[in-house]
Amino acid sequence: MKKLLLVEDEVAIREFEAINLQRAGYTTVEAGSGEEALELYDCDPAGFDIALLDISMPGMDGFSLCKELRRRSPSLGIIMLTAHTQEMDKVSGLMLGADDYITKPFSPSELLARVDSLYRRVEMNKNSASPGQSEEIKLDEFTLNLRRRTLLKGDKNIELTQVEFQIIEYFFLNPDTALDRSDILTKVWGAGYFGEEKIVDVNIRRLRMKIEDDPSNPKRLVTVWGMGYKWSTNV
Q1: How many domains does the chain have?
Q2: Which residues pair with 209 in a beta bridge?
């Protein structure tokens, strides 16, 4: 069952989204506020694959809800819906733990493409390492476990979202190799992704806050100017 938490305070928009998602095979649980959404999620936290959150809602807005849901689950797929075109809204949602964002107005095809893409990544995150693939990758003090989907820095667990894990996995499979932003985007978000490359930059910034001793002066996830990023070993 593909189960989705749909949070939107405008009834007409919520019904439009729900109808299109249900036609595509998703089971939708609807909430008209952030507070109601948290209650519904807490009743069945393991049952949801994706949460679709409107940003502008009275009471608990989408940003606050995103933060609370991410605190409850690193593996839940989260997409923010915003009527704003300001870059800060998009960046803020991603920094709080969202996996993607969609700017209103959007077509049913774009909505389904984004949701389907994220659902595939969530399902991939649930699977164990591929047959014949090493279960662990060790790079200096870091250990990435592909079966348990965990990252350790020494003996400290670094909690990652499913998108962050896939980014780190790509770097660990290609250490000391410059990876182009577009390659990272295709590898993690898929070849048919509708969005922009800056989603890579925001996720790198978020990962640096979790991994680096000094995020403002990164030693591991370093920028390769004019291209993208690389994971540096033996720092």
Answers
A1: 2
A2: none
